[in-house]
Amino acid sequence: MNVIDHVRDMAAAGLHSNVRILSSLFLTMSNNNPELFSPAQKYQLLVYHADAIFHDKEYRNAACKYSMALQQKKVLSKTSKVRTSTGGASTNIQAQVCFNSLPSEIEVKYKIAECYTILKLDKDAIAVLDGIPSRQRTPKINMMLANLYRKAGQERSAVTSYKEVLRQCPLALDAIIGLLSLSVKGAEVASMTMDVIQSIPNLDWLSVWIKAYAFIHAGDNQRAINTICSLEKKSLLRDNVDLLVSLADVYFRAGDTKNAILKFEQAQMLDPYLIKGMDVYGYLMAREGHLEDVEVLGGRLFNISDQHAEPWVISGFYSKRYSRALYLGAKAIQLNSNSVQALLLKGAALRNMGRVQEAIIHFREAMRLAPCRLDCYEGLIDCYLASNGIREAMGMANNIYKTLGANAQTLTILATVCLEDPVTQEKAKTLLDKALAQRPDYTKAVVKKAELLSREQKYEEGITLLRNALANQSDCVLHRMLGDFLVAVNDYQEAMDQYSIALSLDPNDQKSLEGMQKMEKEESPTDATVELDGDDMEGSGEDGDLEGSDSEAAQWADQEQWFGMQ
């Protein structure tokens, strides 16, 4: 047993810090005396040394050392050819056995690509993996290539690589999801798994699973929900956390907040360490006004792992400053550049800070990653409207309407843009009526219809609309809007009750608080005058100005601006 064997055994035992020190010493000895180790031994030392550095997360250094190992392998290949041409048969066999027992050159190239991927050097990673002949590519190499191609927008190459993964590993479900996300038909994907389904017992659910995810990526939310529910009801797959998270996410996409939250909570109860999907859950909870619960959720996720995007995104939802949310969103994207929720968080922060063009870039990237998520399009449309780009907003809304069909959500998005132009007010009303005919409880459609009725001063009609919507749900914005309509018809007592309910649902709802305070002042003008005089006397210096100087925090208190309720 030689020294290289000792290094190899320590590497296999996970003694990475020991390997790093020892291999470094041996490599220095080899540089000072090239005859000390054979080319094969030096190659091994370089690979084990690079592996130890990779384990220490020094990825740029590791990539450099792996590249040095590949250079050494070329030297080794040349010397082995010379020996083969001059040596006898037994010598050649021994040399071949020794050569085959060395660390795989393909594996070394994969490690280099892994380093480049972590360093966000995707083009370099693709170049390294492209250099491996197709027949020598292992499933993990094809999977990494597929993901890199997809990220780079090379969809055809990504499809080819995903299919190669499935050819070698027909139960690679993430590769199946990759193909479906690239618009490959569900039937074609299912055909690639048919042999394994028929040959292995208890796999009959897989074809239904593929169908469910095909519906998800086609944007057919209702059929996706029905299919996942049919899977989840099967005794063998009941209480599967991944299925529950997927079901919650589809409910969210369909605009069914109540069921989305319910399924996320169910998944969380089954797996207290769950991270996947918790950013969407946190977003929904924040939108409902449960900011304290969101803060608790963020803290719990940080205790589980701070190397995932989700806890950083959730922290952004209860941050009181746009600049802080911007930082948290950027940090989340740094950890996971494919995090749609992180892109939306950062985009919303940029938009609210007036940096609309930068926000547009982030919303467009979110759209590319999740073409069936309407909140990505809504963010972009809000940016266009904020910069008076009604034509661009209208074009985007029409495109969504044509691509995803006439459902309550797409109709409401188109109506929202139409409301911005006096010429298309009637069209907006027609679209909202169609949306509410499909889903009378769809909050965004109710809110927009109520806004339209308020403009037209049709307060009684607005009160009826809001009462009907609140018959089967309790929503802060709807209660507050009902309060506003009741004030308009001089029903102050019930208006006060509605504002109180709104504040009980979301204590941070600034508009409900303002409505209530305005009513209190109108009811007792004498008291209000006395109070005002007293306040003026106490706050006549600069201290009063300082307390209210944080305009950003005041803007942030308006939850609808941040969470897209209106």
Task: Describe the overall structure.
Among the domains are: about 1-80 and about 100-130, Tetratricopeptide repeat domain (Serine Threonine Protein Phosphatase 5, Tetratricopeptide repeat, Alpha Horseshoe), CATH 1.25.40.10; about 440-520, Tetratricopeptide repeat domain (Serine Threonine Protein Phosphatase 5, Tetratricopeptide repeat), CATH 1.25.40.10. The protein has helices spanning about 5-10, 15-30, 40-55, 60-85, 90-100, 105-120, 120-130, 140-150, 155-170, 175-180, 185-190, 195-200, 205-220, 220-235, 240-255, 255-270, 280-285, 290-305, 310-315, 320-335, 340-350, 355-370, 375-385, 390-405, 410-420, 425-440, 445-455, 460-470, 475-490, 490-505, 510-525, 525-540, 545, 550-555, 560-565. The protein is about 75% helix and about 0% strand. It is mostly helical and about 575 residues long. The protein is elongated. The chain contains 35 helices and no strands. Helix 10 (about 175-180) runs parallel beside helix 13 (about 205-220) and helix 24 (about 390-405) packs antiparallel against helix 25.
CATH superfamily of the domain at 1-78 and 102-132: Tetratricopeptide repeat domain
How large a portion of the residues is in β-strands, by DSSP E?
Answer: under 5%
**What is the residue-averaged pLDDT?**
87
What general form does the structure show? elongated
CATH topology of the domain at 1-78 and 102-132: Serine Threonine Protein Phosphatase 5, Tetratricopeptide repeat
Number of helices: 35
Terminal Cα separation, in Å? 73 Å
Looking at the overall shape, the CATH architecture of the domain at 1-78 and 102-132 is Alpha Horseshoe
Helix and strand content put the structural class at mainly alpha
CATH class type of the domain at 1-78 and 102-132: Mainly Alpha
Say how many strands there are: 0
What ranges have pLDDT less than 50 throughout 5 or more consecutive residues?
84-98, 526-561
Helix proportion of residues, in percent? over 70%
What is the CA-based Rg, rounded?
30 Å
Largest sheet: none
